[in-house]
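Notes to self, Signal transduction histidine kinase:
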Amino acid sequence: MKLLSFIVLLSFLYCNGQSYTIQWFTMDNGLPQNSVKDIIKDKYGFIWLSMEGRVLRYDGSNFVQYKNFKLNNLSFGDFYGDVQKDSIAVFNNSEKNVLLISQRRPQIISQRKIFNQDFPKDNRIYKRFVKNNVTARYVSYIDSYFVQLKTGTYYFENNSIIYADQKSKQRIKIDDRFSRNRLKRLFVHGEAVFVADADRKKILQLYQGKYSYVEAPSIYTDPETKIYWQQSTDQVFMINHGKIYSSQFLNGKLTLTYVLEYNDIDKELSGAMFYDEDTRKLYIGSSINGLKILSLSDFSVSKKNLPYQDEVCYAALPYGGNSVLSQEGIRYYRNRSERLYKAPQSYDKRYIFQDDSGNLVYRENNSIHIRYKNTGFTKYDSITFEKKEITGLYKNGGMYMVSVSDRNKFYLYIFDRDNFNRVVKFIPSEGHIDSVLRYHKDILYLGGSNGISVISLSKNKIIERIGENLPVKQIIRTGDGNIWLTTYNQGIFLLKDHKVIRIPVDKNDFLANAHYILEDAHSNLWISSNNGLFKINKTQLLESLKRPGEPVPYYRYTKEHGFLNNEFNGSADPCANILDNVQFVFPSMEGFVFFNPQEVRTYFPKSQDIYLERAKVNGKMLDLKGHLFLEGGYKNAEVYIDIPYYADPENIYLQAKLIGGDESQWINIKNDKTFRLANIEPGKYNLMIRFLSSENGKFVYRSLPIEVEAYFYQTFTFKVLVAGFIILILIITIQLRTNFLRLKNKVLKNTLVHKDKELQETNNKLKSESDYQKKLIESISHDITTPVKFIALLSQELTQSEDIKTQKKYFDSIYKTSEQLYKFTLSLKKYTELYKQENATDDEYLIYDVIETKRLLFQEIAAQKNTFIYNFCDHHLTIRLNKNILLAVFHNIIDNAVKNTSDGEIVISTYSSDQGIEICIADTGSGMSAEQRTYYTELFQKKGNEHLIFKNYGLGLHMVIQLVLKINGKMTFHENKPKGTIIKIHIEYDQENINCR
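result:
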């Protein structure tokens, strides 16, 4: 199987008034041969051609041929079967083998699976009769031709007709005077067989074994009429002198519908015909001339057809309701033209209008010509502007205007209605004037190469400029009041709130040179351009401004739809017209294009009409089953996108993107409908296809999973193994290098041992210094917090009190506390050495004095909380421990007691025994919980650094515990009933460096 992918329009043949175009395919431009035996369309929308040795599938763009069948006889003939049941058969000449076309593919089957043969089992030769055309031959060696229907079978044999009923198997002889040559005029509609009788001018009708003669239009029985009938397509055509009619049997009557006139049909119809109602295309297959496709057009092109004159058209006026009139005196109808008055061929065809009297006013060289209606436009006058060039002639908003240039200066003259000899206004312009629009009574828009100049007629000057540097070609106002601008090479713009908004162009940028816009009754905009005519719904176009980057669903009409030339003309006034019969007329480089916008069709594939089931990998065709697997190292792959679409594929915006790669942007698929895969990294991907399936701009999406196999060296496992091997090599290299360095370092180690010890000692000292600094900061900040906070609190109370006695009391408390705080700060220097000092001293001091110092510091603070501090220590008990350590310990414990006691008392007492002394601090405050008492008690059992990791109970007692441990003392924590806490500090006599008496 080979794929023939191409888009070929070999030639378009046009005649003035003809409403179809022709595509012609032969061996020179894509067909494998020129002989086409039969044509049919399957239920999926694909066209199938029967040929010698092969069958072809056509989707509107590409031919796919199937030919590699294991059959001895490959001379295929006519199609037979049921299209709706997806069962189309094509026999070879021997009718022993058959191709069944189903699910969009042909396959060989036995002919017994297709037909239930009920003809007699005898030695006679039977020939199935499924098609009738002008080249049919009914040879004598065939004993019986038969037509098989659902209800029964008709046998034409021995100059008679025999009917065999399908149910009863009864055989009925109908007519014994039926000659074989009458088969040329036989056709079938449904279950009724008809034979045109030219002699009787009637039609023989056979229905379920009965016959009758019925009336029919004369074309059926005209001897010059050629009949074409194909049973599988259920189509019958009557061809008479080039005119082609389609036959129908409705409500018991035969009727004809005119299709088109094709004068060469008599010479070319020698194979097959098929008319596609959906796409309005007539397919004609020839045994020698290939395939011709005649596409009916909704457009008509009218030309003047005069010798030695071109057909270039510009401005024209509506005339008579169904035609337009040019200044050359040519009246153009939809399918013909005529001359109303004689005038020389004009090279100045861009401006024309009718004045109030119906006279024609147009420009000719440097003059205004006025042809008078009452003379049949045969007489005219001229008005010349001396030494000035007329650049434009306009009638807009009831005003008559002419634009002129004078030595690179530009002016707009406004006349007194149709009195062209009297200028009522003279408006200078900054540049050439290309278009004029009267916005309202006082405002005039002048379009030119530098945008739009807004003119105030009352002020006679330019009051505003819009869209500077924009080369405006036409200014068009649609029925909703929107103003559109076409430009030279810069596209279309919308004028909104005195600002120009660029309208997205088509994907080929043909609308960069748009000419003019007409709006139909359904809000569709028809836009002429230098390359085709475009249609777009206005609402969709305005909505597209909110979705930048998304394609705008412009529908483009070209020569394929019936034009003689894709290039339309603008830069004229008027350059498009709407006639009274609602026809639109646009001028082109070859005649005026007429059409009714309500009748012009748009063609889109159905949402289900897309199939991703074929691919070619390394030159080999594959049938896809929902996914594509590509082996590692594939060279090239192509995925074929099968869409039965018989119009311009540019209009459906067929796009694709590969999801999973580095780039996932939509790309336009060319007309061969092929997506190519090359140099894709191994992995899993998803091919996404989309196309437009209606005018509403909605896309239909399809996807195809694709997996690219990896080479062994591209797999994850291989990469892991390689990475592991590299790491192993590095480890071995590092180990060898390490062993070498170890040996070398051993030599140096002895030299460095001494230095290492010194550095270690220095490090320990630094560490101890760091620990000391940390403990010092903790000690100072903790000891100074409460007095300072108390002074701050008293100061606040002092500011709020107006009582002199109370103020005096506060001043006295502040004084006493500050004095004690001052004395405390004098000893801060000693704090700096606290953790470095020795535990014992040579000087003895009274414990009572140490306690009294702290009592005096906190008594004012306690008094504020109605708490009393009692120093019941022995006045004669002395000790030689480091005084600063004890001061810090007592400071913290008394501070905590003051903080947690209100309306109570704090009692400090000492007890001595033979083993040592005990200092007891008891308060009646809120007290410590059992958990806290247990926690602090257990801290004494930890001798390492573990005790530096504290719970969130505060730093004060942790510091006290460290200092007590420093002097080798002990602390215990007890509950003071009914409330409060008792802290006891035990100091033994016989401890080293301690001397208590």
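- The chain has ten helices and 71 strands.
- The longest strand covers residues 419-429.
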